[in-house]
Write a structure and sequence with these properties.
Elements: H1 11-64, E1 66-67, E2 78-84, E3 87-97, E4 108-118, E5 121-130, E6 140-157, E7 162-163, E8 166-167, H2 168-171, E9 177-186, E10 189-197
Antiparallel strand pairs: 1-3, 2-3, 2-8, 3-4, 4-5, 5-6, 6-7, 6-9, 9-10
């Protein structure tokens, strides 16, 4: 009388099956991880592009309405340039027209743009306050407006050439044109964006 045959897998077959399953799972995980990273990069790039467009729009609006006083006055236009670890970092200070709120704010805003260093690159900060709110801290704001930069470079056209320093107390007027270059980091590379603004107001006399 013969014994019944035993059904099931041998130990070797189980080991081979587990090895194949591990390879398949690893491959699928790698694909999912790559897709997740790609989607994250695309979303982050979209957010950065949107933030860049908003910053450019704000700069265009504010600088096209910039105002200055006569030499020695309070409202000045000042541009300084320096390097932060080899990266162009302009500091721009000016006064611009603002929507006045009766009894609360005037029709002028004091604005400053200045890059600072961070682990991910330069961060452009914007500080603003009502032109006459020296003793009103609640009307003063300072916050980062754009990050992951490789440069923020501002130049002024004086009628004959572009210069990287401007003081309206010295030049006694506003530049004819203002050229701004914002260089952003993207996937290990840098990409510059250039735009030119023409001030519409020459004096606040």
């Amino acid at each position: 009388m013969s014994r019944p045959a035993h059904s099931g897998f041998t130990l070797l077959e189980m080991l081979v099956a587990l090895a194949i399953a591990a390879i398949v799972i690893t491959s699928i995980s790698a694909v999912v991880l790559a897709l997740t990273r790609h989607n994250t990069t695309v979303i982050e790039h979209g957010r950065n592009q949107q933030a860049l467009r908003e910053v450019i729009s704000i700069l265009q609006q504010e600088l096209s309405s910039v105002v200055i006083d006569k030499p020695g006055g309070t409202a000045r236009f000042n541009l300084e340039n320096r390097d932060l670890y080899g990266k162009p970092a302009s500091t721009l200070q000016f006064y611009t027209l603002n929507t006045a709120v009766a009894g609360k704010t005037s029709d002028q805003l004091r604005v400053r743009y200045s890059p600072t260093e961070s682990p991910s690159g330069l961060v452009l900060r914007r500080s603003c306050a009502d032109a006459f709110s020296v003793n009103q801290p609640d009307l003063q704001k300072d916050y980062p407006i754009l990050g992951q930069l490789d440069g923020f470079f501002v130049e002024c056209f004086n009628g004959s050439r572009w210069v990287s320093i401007w003081d309206s107390n010295m030049q006694t007027n506003l530049p004819q044109k203002i050229r701004i270059t914002i260089t952003i980091k993207r996937q290990g590379q840098t990409e510059p964006f250039h735009f030119i603004i023409i001030p519409r107001i020459s004096s606040n006399a």
